[in-house]
Write a structure and sequence with these properties.
With 158 residues, the protein is an alpha+beta fold. The protein contains five helices and five strands, in the order H-E-H-H-E-E-H-E-E-H. Strands 1-3-2 form a three-stranded antiparallel sheet. The chain is rod-shaped and about 95 Å long.
C-alpha cells in the first residue's frame, strides 16, 4: 500500500488511523514505510518535526501523538480515556452499560409462604399496627422460632 505521493504528514495520519487515532513515535517510525518511503538524511527527525508542528496532530504524552480531530471527539462526546498499560499508552473506550436485569440470590425459610397464609387467615390484620392491607404485611415471628417452646417454624402460635 505504498503511496509515493503522500507527504510525511499524510503518511503519519494514515499510521495513526491504523493504530486507532494515536501512536507513539516509535510506532510511527516502524510503520510509516507502509505509506511513504523514508527519504532525506534524517527521516526520523522529519517525522518528529511533522507531528510537533502540524495542526493535525496533538501531543498526548512524551513521545505519543494523536490526531487532533480524534482527541477533540473524545473530549466532546466523552468517548473514553487514555491509560498506561505495561509502559504503553492505551485508549479505553467508554462502555455504556445498560443493565436491564440482574440475578438475585436470596435465602428464604422453607414453608414461609404457607406460614404467612396461615397467619393472615387467623389474624386478618397486624396485631401491632392494625394494618389489614395484605400486600403490606410480612409474616414474622416476634420471638425467634428457634427459642420457641414448640420447635416448629410453621406454627403461627410461635
Amino acid at each position: 500500500m505504498h503511496k509515493e505521493n503522500l507527504t510525511y504528514s499524510e503518511a503519519i495520519e494514515m499510521v495513526m488511523n491504523e493504530n486507532g487515532g494515536f501512536a507513539p513515535l516509535k510506532y510511527i517510525y516502524e510503520n510509516i514505510e507502509k505509506y511513504r518511503k523514508k527519504t532525506g538524511k534524517t527521516p526520523d527527525n522529519t517525522i518528529q518535526e511533522r507531528v510537533q508542528r502540524d495542526d493535525r496532530f496533538t501531543r498526548i504524552a512524551l513521545g505519543v501523538y494523536g490526531l487532533t480531530e480524534f482527541l477533540e471527539n473524545i473530549e466532546e462526546y466523552d468517548l473514553g480515556f487514555f491509560t498506561v498499560k505495561k509502559d504503553n499508552i492505551v485508549f479505553k473506550e467508554k462502555k455504556e452499560i445498560k443493565i436491564t436485569e440482574k440475578i438475585v440470590k436470596q435465602k428464604i425459610r422453607i414453608g414461609q409462604s404457607r406460614f404467612r397464609n396461615d397467619l393472615l387467615k387467623s389474624l386478618k390484620k397486624c396485631p401491632i399496627t392494625q394494618i389489614d392491607e395484605k400486600r403490606l404485611l410480612i409474616a414474622s415471628h416476634i420471638k425467634p422460632w428457634i427459642h420457641s417452646i414448640i420447635m416448629s417454624p410453621d406454627k403461627t402460635t410461635n
